[in-house]
User: Which sequence fits this backbone?
């Protein structure tokens, strides 16, 4: 009897989520982003194509589905998950106990990937979200409830996220570095940097790899340093540190 109750409940929540999710995807063009990156200290999911084309969401980790073991694990049960806000999923467990829905209060059990979407739908109801996202890794599906969109400009958490590590298409997770819009990997345009650097060096918290081309240097000198005008000309972009040193090698004349 309870089993049927649960199935009916889960299916009806899933139907609701599907409708919301369709609108959500259109509104934020979620499917247009090829890459994802999540920071489990800040509970932020970044979807992006490049630095101009990106979007950030706060999330609550709901749980994981292991493709190899075919098991579901709620994030409150999962010691490997870092996110502090995973404790919020205990509300789902509590709801499960109250209603005697076993799947909602057992920490881990044999499952399939469809369960995950039902769990997301139930989380959506209990924890309030704006959408959901399923990160598909090699052996694991990671189910996130998205709770809020963050405008990327000047948000302190996004700044922190960008100061930490970035996911480079060629090099994977690396420290961020900054170069002017003219620096490239084809034609040498000169290489000036804010301090002498070498590959793999330690950086103080407030330091960043920063470089610009010879033209930018002329403008910078003309304006007696970095100001609105010279920064506009440089239009600094974010790259990974490995890219930075590849750029340095090619552009140092
Ligand atoms: Zn430049
Ligand atoms: Zn790179």
Assistant:
């Amino acid at each position: 009897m309870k089993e049927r109750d649960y199935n009916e409940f889960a299916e009806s929540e899933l139907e609701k989520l599907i409708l919301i999710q369709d609108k959500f995807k259109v509104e934020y063009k979620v499917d247009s982003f090829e890459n994802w990156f999540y920071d489990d200290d800040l509970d932020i999911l970044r979807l992006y194509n490049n630095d101009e084309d990106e979007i950030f969401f706060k999330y609550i980790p709901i749980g994981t589905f292991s493709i190899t073991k075919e098991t579901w694990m709620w994030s409150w049960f999962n010691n490997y998950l870092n996110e502090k806000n995973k404790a919020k999923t205990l509300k789902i467990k509590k709801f499960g106990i109250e209603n005697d829905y076993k799947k909602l209060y057992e920490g881990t059990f044999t499952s399939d990937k469809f369960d995950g979407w039902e769990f997301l739908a139930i989380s959506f109801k209990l924890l309030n979200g704006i959408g959901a996202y399923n990160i598909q890794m090699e052996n694991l599906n990671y189910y996130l409830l998205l709770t809020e969109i963050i405008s990327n400009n000047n948000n302190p958490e996004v700044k922190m996220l960008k100061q930490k590590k970035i996911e480079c298409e060629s090099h994977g997770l690396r420290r961020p570095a900054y170069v002017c819009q003219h620096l490239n990997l084809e034609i040498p345009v000169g290489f000036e940097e804010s301090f002498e650097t070498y590959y793999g060096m330690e950086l103080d918290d407030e330091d960043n790899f920063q470089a610009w081309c010879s033209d930018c240097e002329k403008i910078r000198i003309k304006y007696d340093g970095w100001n609105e005008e010279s920064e506009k000309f440089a239009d600094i972009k974010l790259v990974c540190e490995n890219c930075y040193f590849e750029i340095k090698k090619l552009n140092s004349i």
Remarks:
- DSSP finds eight helices and 13 strands in the chain.
- The mean pLDDT is 91.
